[in-house]
Amino acid sequence: MKGIGQARRKILKAKDIVISGHRNPDGDSIGSVLSLGLGLERLGKRVFMVSQDGVPKRYRQLPGATRIIRRASGAPDLAISVDCGTKEMLGETFDIFKKAKSILEIDHHEYRKSFGDISLIDHKAAAVGELIYILLADLNIGVTKDMALNILTSIIVETNSFRLPNIRALTFDICAKLIKMKLDFYKLVNTVFWSKSKASAILLGLCLSRCKFLTKGKMVWSIVREEDFDTVGGKDEDVDPVVDEMRSIRDVKIAILFRERKNGLLRVSMRSKGNINVASLAETFNGGGHFDAAGCYISNRSGSIKEFLRLAGNLIR
Question: Residue 89 to residues 50, 92, 98, 148, 244: CA-CA distances in angstroms?
Answer without folding.
Answer: 13, 9, 14, 26, 21
